[in-house]
Specification:
By secondary structure, the chain is an alpha/beta fold. The chain contains nine helices and 17 strands. It has two domains: 4-120, Rossmann fold (3-Layer(aba) Sandwich); 126-289, 2-Layer Sandwich (Dihydrodipicolinate Reductase, domain 2). The chain is 30% helix and 25% strand. The strands form three sheets. The chain has a nine-stranded mixed sheet. Strands 3-2-1-4-5-6 form a six-stranded parallel sheet, sandwiched between helices. The longest helix has 20 residues, at 319-338.
Length: 365
């Protein structure tokens, strides 16, 4: 069977990782890259051996493209994904799915009516590290999972990103930019959440770019840069969550799941690899459990989605799961504003764990 034709829209920094991987996965073929800045699309096409480039409309109209990979900025996700659905294309979006719940619901409804699928990052949940954690929990390796603790903190991306303004705009901040990694892990391990309580803070009204040609430029901060939340899950688990860009001390990738028999330190949610660590009551130290499976990187979810489309089975990083994460983040934001618990109405079917032999570098056909 011929590779599935892919068109990529949005040639920013993240496109390099996607194009490197998608060009190496035999189940897909990138036929065109597109951007509002066509010269940037042309440069990416040349750098990654893609045969065509152009504006977003060119990718949507390309007759060989069956799936659009949407790597635009968060504010454009709903419009670009909606245009792909309207063009009869399946769509894979970078996170978040949309900036608000209503737009996400509308996108999924349009996709269902058009008979196309929506998938969404982060596909780090399909990496060896996190899938190994899922299989260990499913096998009873920590007993019954009860609670989780996540921690993400640091000084903020303005120190290293040359154009960081969009990361401090609505739809971003540490909650919406990095929260999807942590919340998607807990969704993969616990299932859907049912309510949250949160506090949020914005200690600084502006920040200063620290690197690149615009270093020294001041810009406004529009969203909370410190968010702490409690989440209750439908299956009974609870989680404590912290997302902060207000700490001089950087700590990231911290996810612990505690069960009735042991605590599991889950690998960094922003990575595809990483071994597990398990500690039982009375243990003097952690026991390292090597991860098994593929750790190919971004674009793995596109391969899982394409294989599922052809097989007629559910894909794992689904639009429904991504919409639930968007609603969960919106509920955290609303709770921080109101000071009250906020319910989460959406749900999703928990995806099946990946077989450890699953490999995006091999062809499924």
């Amino acid at each position: 069977m011929a590779p599935f034709g892919v068109g990529l829209i949005g040639c920013g920094n993240i496109s390099n990782q996607y194009l490197k991987n998608l060009s190496a996965f035999p189940d897909v073929e990138v036929l065109i890259v597109a951007d509002l800045d066509v010269s940037r699309a042309k440069a990416q096409a040349a750098a990654h051996g893609v045969p065509a480039w152009g504006a977003p409309g060119d990718a949507l109209a390309h007759p060989g493209v069956g799936l659009i990979v949407n790597l635009t900025v968060p504010a454009a996700h709903a419009a670009v994904s909606g245009a792909a659905v309207a063009a009869g294309k399946h769509v894979w979006s970078e996170k978040p799915l949309t900036l608000d719940v209503a737009a996400g619901r509308a996108l999924l409804a349009a996709a269902a009516a058009a008979g196309v699928r929506v998938g969404c990052a982060p596909d780090t949940v399909l990496g060896a590290g996190l899938q190994s954690a899922r299989r260990l929990i499913d096998a009873g390796g920590i007993g019954t999972p009860l609670t989780a603790l996540t921690l993400l903190q640091g000084p903020g991306p303005q120190a290293w990103h040359p154009d960081p303004e969009f990361l401090f705009a609505p739809g971003a901040g540490p909650l919406f930019d990095l929260g999807p990694y942590y919340l998607s892990v807990l969704a993969t391990l616990f299932g859907p959440a049912r309510r949250v309580a949160a506090v949020g803070r914005r200690p600084r009204e502006s920040r200063t770019i620290g690197t690149g040609p615009r270093a020294g430029t001041e810009f406004s901060v529009a969203v909370p840069t410190y968010v702490a939340a409690l989440a209750e899950y439908t299956a009974g688990q609870a989680a404590s969550l912290l997302f902060s860009w207000d700490s001089p001390l950087s700590r990231a990738g911290f996810v612990e799941v505690t069960g009735t028999e042991a605590t599991l330190a889950v690998p960094d949610p922003n990575r595809f690899d990483g071994d597990l660590r398990v500690r039982r009551a009375g243990d003097a130290d952690w026991t390292v459990v090597p991860a098994t499976g593929a750790a190919a990187g971004r674009g793995s979810g596109v391969v899982d989605m394409v294989r599922a489309i052809r097989a007629g089975t559910p894909h794992r990083a689904s639009g429904e799961l991504a919409l639930h994460v968007v609603e969960l983040m919106a509920a955290i934001e609303a709770s921080a504003a109101s000071g009250a618990f906020t319910d989460v109405a959406s749900t999703f079917d928990m995806p099946a764990a990946l077989d450890p032999q699953w490999d995006p570098y091999g062809s499924a056909h």
